[in-house]
Amino acid sequence: MAGRVIVYGGKGALGSSLVAFFKAKSWWVASVDIFPNEEADANVVLTPTDSWTDQEKELESKVESIVTGFKLDAVLCVAGGWAGGNAASKAFVKNSDMMWKQSVWSSVLASQLSARHLTEGGLLCMTGAKAALEGTPGMIGYGMAKAAVHQLVKSVAADNSGMPKDSTTVAILPVTLDTPMNRKFMSTADFSQWTPLDTVSQKLFEWTTDKKSRPANGSLVQVVTKDGVTSFVPTE
Amino acid sequence: MAGRVIVYGGKGALGSSLVAFFKAKSWWVASVDIFPNEEADANVVLTPTDSWTDQEKELESKVESIVTGFKLDAVLCVAGGWAGGNAASKAFVKNSDMMWKQSVWSSVLASQLSARHLTEGGLLCMTGAKAALEGTPGMIGYGMAKAAVHQLVKSVAADNSGMPKDSTTVAILPVTLDTPMNRKFMSTADFSQWTPLDTVSQKLFEWTTDKKSRPANGSLVQVVTKDGVTSFVPTE
Q: How does DSSP classify residue A101?
């Protein structure tokens, strides 16, 4: 066994790619999701709930039953979703609520999990969005949740955040990932401007295993794909 | 009657100051809060709930019963709270949840209310926090919620956000307000570095009534008090 990683959102499109990638490198991989990922060595299957603290309790008790007597090398949080809507949309509040639960609950819980179970010098990576670096009037709830994740990364990366010594916390900020769902709903788009999932998995594997390759602690790394070539560009 | 304003969080320290200030200028003032403000002309008293959409429904039905046949000149959202805690704190999730509900629920609902009831050229002002422009490791939930409000302001101020024509959306970003609660919990601090509530109320009254005095749409205006002198400084 080469190392140990938890993929939070391990049954989603990017999460499944990560699970498969790390498995192929002989890593112990656990998935946290509302559905099990059969490829993973262990699964934490969360019950959908409207109570964040209930989800916290369920997560911690289930994580403690699989992370026994060892620390994790990395926690990769790629849970999330997308919903549109502006301030005049009927679903404005409903969608803002959903975006919060999908992106921020998961990122905060992944941070807590990392504070408790990540090894010294380990990696926590969350998922933001390049769009949320500015206003997002057509998808307000989505932008708010991702902006919260960006600031969370800055907090968790700062001194006295409660994280293990020498650990690194960053976020990837994709534009559009090349997922089956995105192909279905944007079938006429130019896919060569979308980021392949494997490219992201490979990069996160590199950051996990080669500390020198990592962006600086607290980095918000934009993931930009142009004509089939993907760049990972820290913000600012 | 000089004009009409809704103060969201109208029973809090800053909210009460705003209600009194606008009342003294002969404005029609409605307060939205979980407690009534007896000075206000009308009160929307919200029932504490864990469901954002339930709060949305209650708010809209109660607002529609008091905002009848007219539009609002301003919606001033000063609801919010404070809680500390880093990623290793026991109350990390609980406090993050509370901060979200106090700051983001209110700001999103104030945005929706503005999209529906604000007059053309009206003012929506929300409340962020200067600290949340960077990482806030000792108060992670607070910083996340305020960063979400900052990005919300950018979204709501952008084109096609659903807001009335020519309206202005901004946020004030205080450091420390001179409230009874803050004096109680930080009794040895130098109060001359804190911002008096009246100073904020006066400035928001000015922005409401004199369009030329307003900061640019989408501004995050830092409220900085030094030796008793308060400056309102747009970020960047």
A: I
